[in-house]
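Morning!

As promised:
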Amino acid sequence: MAKILRRERLVPNIHLLEVHAPEIAQKSKPGQFVIVMPDEKGERIPLTIADWDNKKGSVTSIFMVVGTSTHKLSLIETDDEIPVFVGPLGKPSEIKKYGTVLLAGGCFGIAAIYPIARALKEKGNKIITLLDVKANYLLYWEEKLRAVSDQFLVSARDSYYNCKDYIPKTLNNIIKKGSKIHKVISIGCTYLMYTCSEATKPHGIETSVSLNPIMVDGTGMCGACRVTIDGKTKFACVDGPDFDGHLVDWEELFSRRKSYFEDEIQSLCHWEKNNFPR
Amino acid sequence: MAEKKEMQPELKETLRAEFNKDWRKELRKSIPAKERIKISPQKMRERSPEERSKDFNEVNLGLDAELAKKEAQRCLDCANPGCVMGCPVGIDIPTFIKLIEIGDYVQSVRKIKETNSLPAICGRVCPQEVQCEETCNIKKSKGEGVKIGNLERFVSDYESQQGEVFIPQIKPASGKKVAVIGAGPAGLTVAGEMARNGHKVTIFEALHVSGGVLIYGIPEFRLPKRILKSEVEYLEKLGVELRENFVVGLTATLDDLKKDGYDAFFIGTGAGLPNFMRIPGENLVGIYSANEYLTRVNLMKAYEFPDYDTPVFLGKRVAVIGGGNVAMDSVRTAKRLGAELAAIVYRRSRVEMPARVEEVNHGEEEGIEFHFLTTPIRYIADEKGRVKAMECLRMELGEPDSSGRRRPVPIEGSEFIMEVDMVVVAIGQSPNPLIPQTTPQLNVGKWGNVEVDWDTMATSIEGVYAGGDIIRGGATVILAMGDARVAAAEMHKYLSKRKKK
């Protein structure tokens, strides 16, 4: 069992989960993830590692409330225990000197890009952070991210920040303005990663995405997370999660992520009925 | 297949000593061999196909004391027991059977446990018909050997039903620490052996429940989880520490554990990498690896969805590709989850199926269809990207290949379409790559298997042993346990030598 040190709602629907996991903290590298199970009847779901603290022996993940598992996690309190918090899984992101790196993040991906930005900054890269939120009150970790960014931009639909376009358009504008960008890293929902990859493709800018297919064990054993990269099947859990966004078969990924759409709704309704009876 | 090895001299001696004991001589005389050979094989009770194909409870109900005694009487107590030769771990089979015949079940199960720490499991999942029962001497004359597996199951179930499980003498603490990586059949066996020898054992398991393939792979209807639970509890009583949710290679590498003071290692991480056929459409929604399908159902209890959160497709027309035990487990699971068509699609014919004969027979009784000499060549999607059909080819059998089985050859122009809404690919597994990838000094073969000296199970790193599917690819529980016993004996020797330094 893993002990919860902190569970906090950062903004509506997005929560932080800090878990006592000293061994995982010691091994965590940017871009890796953990598999979490909220209770004994729960599903095993992957969450990107957003931060870790070796002194405290803690690992932090950020998640968005979507289905039953994340609803359950959002109700967990400090000192509660969860049966599974295992990792760090997957290959770490490639951290090296690229020059200028643009990190595009949305929803949980805002936190997921943080450790990557931090590590790339340490390597001497110029960091442009570009975040996407639907409205200004949905932005979180602004200070943390500003601290590791040379340029900090936010697209918000309510135009409270720099612009209100969905970020692929903003990304395109930045590239067209002639800023030399050596690498783009995009993390967030599948649609965001897909559109960012599409935006950079004509310009030939190396683009890395952190894929989020359905997983079960997370150690290469089951193959639920298979994705097609450049025509070849890969397992996101052990071969990824980072892949070249220009080589991903996005249509397949969209379709596989929706595999259990109806079941997920049924599961959530079942859970709500049992936990919030009228 | 039965291992054709020369019997070790020590084993021969032990068998001989038991054979010559007075009670054995008297027992042999009490019923003459020609009477014994007339007794027909006793059939284990099982639930009706109609009843069992609708739930996940165990199919077999076991022998009762009377049937067990009768079956034990069939054993001629041969001077040269063929059965022992067919057993990968060299159980003293005649002695445990004769102890059943005189009703001393407690001593009988202890006798098995001298060489096999997981009898309740092996009694259920070993391919006895190609091992001990194949080499049983009365098989030659009667066509059917003594039902050794059923007897093994009987005594081990008897022991657990009594509630009191025998804890063997544990040797004084050696002060040595052993890390066992993977809590499957090989790892559990090594852990038990090493703990009995006085070493401090920790098992590291990636999943949240110990048991490996016994928990995520083999379904409840063939191996109830309670049996595994009691085996794991038994290890804990021996002082074994279990660390679940710990992925060696990622949470800590083997080298990290060495620095933490572990003196010896056993790698038993299994064949955790499913093979696919690499044919068009294989990643369509509705196509599973057998590992994923069985893990969802067995480990994550998807058959109790939505009380459990993990879903699984409830296919109505299900094709399972493959002919091994994993394929049989998958197809019978699909049947239990309401499939109207639950079919095995296998590229060879029935005689080449590697599955246990009992499972094939049970499947047939439950209404499983068998499409032999057939192989899929591509999957066809509906408008939502879900599989709706597969194109297949008919095969014929050609010359035998390296496995000795006749090679299937496609028949030109024999393409046909089979309508399916779910497919399970059960064509085998490869060794899991996590340990080889994160342990650079470890020698690895061309299939990703960890290389060992087959006499000692030692890997290329001193003090590190390996066994089971990580060295063999997809094999059997009993072969994994056989490897584990060899590895444990060698590891114990290695640690004892180190002590003297």
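Chain A touches chain B at residues 2, 23-24, 27, 37, 41-44, 68-69, 83-89, 216-217, 219-224, 226-228, 233, 238, 251-252, 255-256, 258-260, 263-264, 266-267, 270-271 (CB under 8 Å).

Hope this helps with the figure draft.
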